[in-house]
Amino acid sequence: MTPLKRTLLLTGMVGLSLAAAGCSTKSNADQAGKSKELTVVFLPGDSAKEATAARTALASEIHKATGKKVNVKTTTDYNVAIQAITSGKAQVALMGPDGYIQAHKQNSAVKPILTYSGKSGTLKDAQYHSYVMVPKAKAAQYKVNGKYSLNKIKGQRMSFVSNTSTSGFAIPAGAIQTAFKLKSKDDLQQNNKFFSKVLFGGSHQGSAVNLLKGDADVAAFDDMDLVQYGKFTNDSTKAGADFKVNADAPAPFNSVRGKESIALAAYPVQNEPLVVNSKGVSQSDVNKIVKAFTSKRVANDPKFFAPADAKVRGLFTKDGKTQFIGISDKWYAPTHKVLANKPNS
């Protein structure tokens, strides 16, 4: 949805865990194939009012592909999404890479089937960026030898997204851990440890607003979930990236319109996958979903891929030849490696 992040889930209310249902793997899969309903659940970044059209479009596409009734439900908790897909209560989910890897680690039946490409229309540039940002007015004080640096963030008030967010916690926290040679990320989540105060915005939008309203001195969030509320006025791929909120930005940015933030650091992140719990959705339905979402029709539909300046928010941002591409877990090998030592949240 937002062209940005999405972390939404498609859940089927009949998809109970094997233990709870007392069924074999085969009978569970058979039941999934017979189920006539799916529920689409969206995570924090995609539950906003302005994402309604994108949510509806995704539900409609799933319905047309599978012939099943699709219900839409929003949520505000990353952990609920992960537990839903691993337990089987959710059959399909659009998750951040970290959330997917956590879910896959808990249940190997959780597998990726799609992601979206970069500008080239291929997986070569299928990535977005995670940032550690500060208010533009105070950015100069974080420079070391004329360059933006993380060296002066210790003791500040910090805002993350969620401890299960890839670009809103795992990647930036890992970078901070490395920069300061910390034994673990645990202290980064607690008040009066590494930071004087730690906030969790619940979404990338929420973390950004914490920073721009002055509730935090430093914040982590990504570009994908923010571009329809503002724009980068310079190179968004490196330290010094300048994000400015639009003058007519809707809630939750209506109280910080025109404000700007500067990136002390920027990190590439693999695009998030659309995943399935293979014990809760039939292979036939998986094939139908992949076929539908990788079609030219969907690639050219602004409800899925909208221009960055579109008035109606799309599921993702259309940039060049952006489109959905079929994948497997092997594509996420780089992220598996980066997050290998991250404890379960």
Describe this structure in words.
There is one protein chain. The chain is α+β, with helices and mostly antiparallel strands. It contains 10 helices and 18 strands. The protein has a 7-stranded mixed beta sheet with strand order 3-2-1-4-15-5-18, with helices on both faces. A 7-stranded mixed beta sheet has the order 10-9-11-6-14-13-12. Helix 4 packs parallel to helix 5. The longest helix has 15 residues, at 52-66. Residues 1-27 and 341-345 have low confidence and may be disordered.
Q: Quaternary status of these chains?
A: single chain
**Estimated structural class:** alpha+beta
Compressed to H and E, one letter per element, the order equals EHHEHEHEHEEEEEHEHEEEEEHHEEEH
CA distance, first residue to last residue: 25 Å
Strand order of the largest sheet: 3-2-1-4-15-5-18
Count of distinct strands:
18
**Rg of Cα set:** 20 Å
Low-confidence regions: 1-27, 341-345
Shape: globular
- Work out the helicity level: 25-40%
Keywords for this entry:
globular, 345 residues, seven-stranded mixed β-sheet, disordered C terminus, 10 helices
Map the helices and strands.
Elements: E1 8-11, H1 18-21, H2 25-34, E2 37-42, H3 52-66, E3 69-74, H4 78-87, E4 90-94, H5 97-106, E5 110-116, E6 127-135, E7 143-144, E8 147-148, E9 157-160, H6 166-179, E10 197-200, H7 204-212, E11 218-222, E12 230-232, E13 242-245, E14 260-270, E15 274-277, H8 283-293, H9 296-299, E16 305-306, E17 316-317, E18 324-326, H10 333-338
Parallel strand pairs: 2-3, 9-10, 9-11, 16-17
Antiparallel strand pairs: 1-2, 1-4, 4-15, 5-15, 5-18, 6-11, 6-14, 7-8, 12-13, 13-14
